[in-house]
Amino acid sequence: MYIIAIAWLYVTLLMAATEKTITAGLLTFIFYGLLPCALLLWLVGVKHRRHQREKHLLDEHVHNQDSADSQRD
Q1: Which residues of 12-42 are buried (b: 16+ CB within 10 A; e: fewer)?
Q2: HSE-up of residue 17 (Cα within 13 Å, Cβ side)
Q3: Closest of 12, 37, 7, 11 to residue 27, by C-alpha
Q4: Rounded-to-integer distance, Cα 41 and Cα 64, Å
Q5: Is the four-CA dihedral 45, 46, 48, 52 of positive or negative sign?
Q6: CA 39/CA 32 separation, integer angstroms
Q7: Where are the beta strands (DSSP E) in 1-73?
Q8: CA 46, CA 34: separation in Å to the nearest integer?
């Protein structure tokens, strides 16, 4: 997935380099390159982070010994 993001940023950087003014080039790079890439990586990362959190909670539950009920009152 990262190779696609890098390739997209490269293409938009070349697009920005062909603009007539520096301002137009920066805006092209930001709005066609950085913002869509950041959104894509964030959306993909949400699923990954959720999966990692669930895995961590499951591992904690499995490996955590609950000794609260095993002691005498």
Answers
A1: beeebeeeeeeeebeebbeebbeeebeeeee
A2: 6
A3: 12
A4: 33
A5: positive
A6: 11
A7: none
A8: 18
DSSP-based three-state secondary structure for 65: coil
Residue recorded with tokens 């949400």:
46
Q: Which two tokens stand for residue 22?
A: 């520096």
Residue ranges in the chain whose pLDDT is less than 70: 57-73
How many angstroms separate the CA atoms of 11 and 3, rounded? Answer: 12
Q: Is 4 exposed, middle or buried (0-12, 13-18, 19+ CB in 10 A)?
A: exposed
Tokens of 32: 């066609």
Q: Which residue's structure tokens are 């499951």?
A: 58
DSSP code of 46? H
Q: Note the pLDDT of residue 41.
A: 86
